[in-house]
Amino acid sequence: MSGIWLAVFGIIVLALGYRYYSKFLAEKIYKLDPKYSTPAHKYKDGVDFVPTNKWVLWGHHFTSVAGAAPILGPAIAVYWGWLPAVLWVLLGTVFAAGVHDFGTLVLSVRHKGQSVGTLANTLIGQRAKILFLFIILLLVLMVNAVFAWVIANLFISNPSAVLSVFIQIPLAVWIGYNVYKKQGSMLLPSIAALAVMYFTAILASYFPVLQIDLVSYFGGEGTTTALGMTATSMAFFVWIIILMAYVYIASTLPVWKLLQPRDFINSHQLIVGLAILYLGLLFSNPEVTAPVSNSTTDTSWFPLLFITIACGAISGFHGLVSSGTSSKQLDKETDARFVGYLGAVGEGALALISIIAVVTFFPTAGEFSNTYSGFAEASGAGLGVFVQGAAQLATGLGIPAQAAATIVAVIVVSFAATTLDSSVRLMRYIISELGTEYNVPSLTKTHVATSVAVVSSAALTLIPEGPNGFGSGGYLLWPLFGTSNQLLAGISLLLISVWLKRLGRNYWPAMVPMIFLMFMTLWAMVSQVFTDWAPWAEGSDWLLFTFGAIVMIFAIWIMITAVSVLMNDNKDNAEKSA
Description:
about 70% helix, mainly alpha, Amino acid/polyamine transporter I, 23 helices
């Protein structure tokens, strides 16, 4: 079968979801009010609360949520066959992610721009808020570690992409200054910046002098440095320090100075990247060689598929972005449909092309089976196979293979970096909230909270154990990230359901995906915690067992509390402010 048919079917489903289902949610469920004064106007401070054009905000939101996860998860999940992966991406995007991302954005806008963690206090009680904030804090810490790990390794394996990625930073600062100080346009400068990035990437592909290869700088692969580390480990360490210095600065600057303009550039990069891949698919017309459903797997796709593909179907991290940063920048409440639901649709389109790039990459089914011989092998190979498969699609447009691979690497790193600094910013908010909650004034200060976020993230990323040696922290926590992320999404949908019920509205569009997601995720988590990671299991892991058990207990506690509130609430308790 041609990969084109998968793309056509998927795009039609996603387009219909945005055209009809998101309109139903906007008009009948969330009841958006164009005259409602959003937090961006009520609390405008020029730092976090900044009224923003919906296209610019969509760019920030989309690229913040579309990191490496909607690429990595689907690239691993095709291990079970392309059909289960495609169906979960499409149905999850339309009926779960769209409801969740859109809903958390509206919920936060209607509650002073507060995060879902803080809103747990308003909706289901103080104790639930503390438990929820703990889960969120652990999740964003894992996001920081995982994405820093991914970026550092991509820099090491693709040195020709480094200069292009870093050139984006001064360009974004210049665009932000031009727009907010001189009232200039952001569209044309951001397109020009993107052109500069890609031109630099292509040049670096062919001229080694433009490649920033730290492994070679420290003596080359296999060399042991004076500090006793290999050149690769030393390069990884340096990249993590550079990345953490960058995210410290990026997460403390006003959003208009770097975050918004850089994300707007990345939104165009995402559109261009998707266009290249989908057009490359059209012109190259590759055959799908992966199996429809893989019957020889060493693990069942129930329930692991639903935590392996999180971003790209539904992800709790999206709710943190919606309620943590995007809600503080929404100009009009009616923009929430465009920003929230369309952001989810965009990520679904990215997950879909990720699946297609992988399942059409291998010349034969046998070669696919050899690479995806087990779940562990699929997890290790997924991202690399996507980069190669996406580059292969791009060559269908006549782009040289070497330049195509560099451009794909630039796109993946840019998205991952966007998610990383947004996540550090969110972690700073959470630490400040906990500082207020437990009366620790120092933690409410921006630079103190950011320092705690950055140092803890760097320490976790640089854990020197595990199968990958030095710097395996992000890699080791990936299994826990999947389940924690989906539990967060389920709890957020539960909060939306409680809020809608209090308003006397139909809460089943949020409740149905919540029930499905919580069932699958708790099933997966119980299996992992008590079968895979437990001290009595063959592959025991005390770190994952401890944190996994804590997160699971807290999530069940929050769920029981929320369900109790949901069952006992009535329309008379509806919040007058909404």
